[in-house]
Structures are given as C-alpha cells and as structure tokens.
Design brief:
The chain has helices spanning 4-26, 31-54, 56-98, 107-112, 116-138, 143-167, 173-206, 217-239, 241-246. By secondary structure, the protein is mostly helical. The termini are far apart. Pfam families: DUF2162.
Amino acid sequence: MIDQKLIELMIILLLFSISISIGLKQYNMEKYKAIMTTVYFILLLIVSFFISNIYSKNIIPFINNNLEFLMAIIGMFILYTGFRFLLEFKNKKETSYLKSESKKNSLKEKITNNLSLPLLLIGAYFGILINLIYVAPVIWMSVFELGLICSITSFIMIISIYLILSNFLKVKSYIYNETIGIFLILSGIYYLIVYTFIPNFQSSLTDKMSPLTLPEINMMITILIIAVIAIVIGFFIKKSKKLKNLL
C-alpha cells in the first residue's frame, strides 16, 4: 500500500510541474530557453537534495516539526503568485494598446511585469524540497535518492507538457495567461486546506479536551498569521486601483 505522504508528494510534484509548464508557455519562451530554464531548476533541486542529505539529522527534525506552518507559507506564496500572473496579464494587455514606438519600457517596469515566473519557480523549489525531505524518512529512503527520482520525474513532466502545449495544442496566448493564474490560485488554496485546516481539524477531533481547554497553540498561531496576511492583502486590494479592476 502506498503511503499517504508519498501520494501527497506526488500530487505536489504534479501540480508544480504542470504550473511550470504552463508558465513557460505563457511567457512564450523559445524551446531551447524553456528547456534550459527547466534544466537549471532541476539541477538546483538535485544540489539542494544532496546538501540536505548531508545535513539530514538537523534538517529533518526541523521540517517534521514545522511542516504545516512552512506549507501554509508556501500556499499563501503560490496564491499571491497566481494573482500576480493575472495582474501581469492585465498590465501587458493594457500596455499593448497604449505604448508607442518611441517609448520604451524602463528596466524596473520590465522586471515588474515579468516577475511571476521567477516567483513560481521559487515557490515550486521550496514546496518540492520541503515535502520531499519530510517524506523520505517515512518511506525509508535517503533524501538524495528520493530527490533524484523526483527530479527526473519532474523534468520529464515539465518538458513533456510544455512540448504538448507548444506542438499539439494550438490555443490562444491569453487563455494560458488566465489559466496559469487561476490554476495557481486553486493550488494555493489546496495547500492551505491540506496542510493547515485539515491537520488542525483532525487534531481537534482526536484530542480529548475539556470545555475549558484552550486550542492548540500552533493552530492559534497559524490562524493568527493567516488572518493578519488576509487583512494586509485586503488593505492593499482596497487601496490599489489595479487590483480593484483585476478583481
């Protein structure tokens, strides 16, 4: 029987691989650049798995004790990245009508309008790394051994999906722009539900608590952090005209 944690790792690997493939297609990257970006991403993962394997005695306990909190941060980061993709798409769509031939975008604007893919790669990197370090000891494998298998699998999935989208599915570019944003938003919500709300809900059902017993401190901290971040995001959405128009 396949361990539940291994299934969760496979789902995360699949979700991030699909996200990166659509993200590469959304940026209209050449096949060579898309493949090289994927290669660099996979090599960074493999090197990180190798280093984590050396210091596994220190890293594994930290990940085990803070998995839900770390994945809650990843979930909110991916959620933000999804909105970022939608916002960039809206900005590029508007500037395509307004820009003139004599006016060039500044370096700051170019970076700001092309930040979503790097954010996605960062979120995918930490999401895969954290979950794999957590799962490896559960299925009695070394971090590097399992990491090598998952890295090769992810590379094959990313390149395969990207080539399918590029060569076999002729879809208009704006559909990719909207799809990747919505897909990442749903993925971020999935991470928050699976790693934040479900574990705390299960622990509250299994723990024998008297009516005067206070909730688990980790649950209270997680809810407080999410509430604060939600308030901050809501404040900026209220103040930002671009986000108002986006939503």
